[in-house]
Amino acid sequence: MSLPEKQWAQVVEKKGGPPVYKEIPVPKPAADEILVKIRYTGVCHTDLHAMNGDWPLPLKMPLVGGHEGAGIVVAKGDLVKEFEIGDQAGIKWINGTDLSCEFCQQAEEPLCPNAQLSGYTVDGTFQQYAIGKAAIASKIPEGVALDAVAPILCAGLTVYKGLKESGARPGQTVAIVGAGGGLGSLAQQYAKAMGLRVVAIDGGDEKKAMCDSLGAEAYIDFFTSKDVVADVKAATPEGLGAHAVLLLAVSEKPFQQATEYVRSRGTIVAIGLPQGAFLKASVFNTVVRMINIKGSYVGTRQDAVEAIDFFARGLIKAPYKIAPLKDLPKIFEMMQQGKIAGRYVLDVPQ
Ligand code: 8ID
Ligand code: ZN
Prior knowledge:
By secondary structure, this protein is of the alpha/beta class. It has two domains: 6-154 and 299-347, Medium-chain alcohol dehydrogenases, catalytic domain (Quinone Oxidoreductase, Chain A, domain 1); 156-295, NAD(P)-binding Rossmann-like Domain (Rossmann fold). It has helices at 45-52, 102-105, 146-149, 155-166, 182-193, 205-214, 228-234, 253-261, 283-288, 301-312, 328-336; strands at 6-12, 19-25, 33-43, 63-64, 69-76, 88-91, 94-96, 116-117, 129-133, 138-139, 173-177, 197-202, 218-221, 242-247, 262-270, 292-295, 320-324, 343-347. Strand 17 (320-324), helix 11 and strand 18 (343-347) form a beta-alpha-beta unit. The strands form four sheets. Strands 3, 5, 6, 9, 10, 17 and 18 form a seven-stranded mixed β-sheet that branches. The protein has a six-stranded parallel β-sheet with strand order 13-12-11-14-15-16, with helices on both faces. Bound molecules: nicotinamide-8-iodo-adenine-dinucleotide and zinc ion. Zinc ion binds at residues 44, 46, 67, 93, 154.
């Protein structure tokens, strides 16, 4: 197959953006890499953090963002055995790792100190052709729709992992903070598929309608609630609080509130990454109520296999909207204002 020399991409040329839609060269895969012709790519709030340089991590510049890329393998290096040309493949946030450090040896590759991050330290999927290490890229089974599966590659994977990390068991209640966003909408679906009950927390009527349709048992509106803590507790069995809390919001306050409505013996999982934020908890309450507070970061290759499998079996149906790749700046603006219910998926020109 002959590949073009040039392609369309959204390129962030300076910290703070905006992304510029322009032509750039098509990259060539190294011996252990695949080149994926991207069909659809989701827009994660992480891409906005990346453009703004919010985090204490060195950032590639100029940068092609994006890390929920689903497409077709069109070229591969000589060492690649995992994929054939024509296979459906997904490029995730973790683009490649050294596969030899202690964490990789223990199948905890997101913790690899030499990990390459799609759309942060290497160019990501807001372009027609993107590169991934074959050992880390995800297989997407034949017949799985590439638009709907794109958000599973980061949002779905991350919340599935977070729910597993919470230790919540079927029948127990999980409070999802930021339930109306990209991660939150998928978290509700994975929670339901795993037999959990959902209390959704977010703001506004559009997100309420979405959470109701996804099967949340209660919706607490943080714009209008006079006492979020009391309202969350009231929505849980016997008013004793949520067995688990998934913190997905891009705001510090809920990270400081969650210990007040988590159930005794419950687990708080921090996943959202608000800039410069800190967790704060009463030591007394943490001790005498035996509260567990932990972080969760994307997921391993095997977590991705499982998250995609839930999706492929038809258990995960979260709403998403499709927009052309050239509309990325508009989507970032809406995201900044908290105006997106669910996820946006970009349609990449073919
Ligand atoms: O591996 C990880 N830990 C990981 C993976 C992927 C994404 C972490 N993230 C991070 C992103 O970088 C981002 O910081 O998770 C966060 C959420 O990503 P997202 O779901 O893609 O963002 P979104 O679609 O904008 O949704 C955020 C929601 O939070 C709500 C907003 O209304 C929005 O619906 N929210 C906010 I901001 N403040 C809230 C509050 N006080 C709140 N919801 C409830 N209470
Ligand atoms: Zn992401």
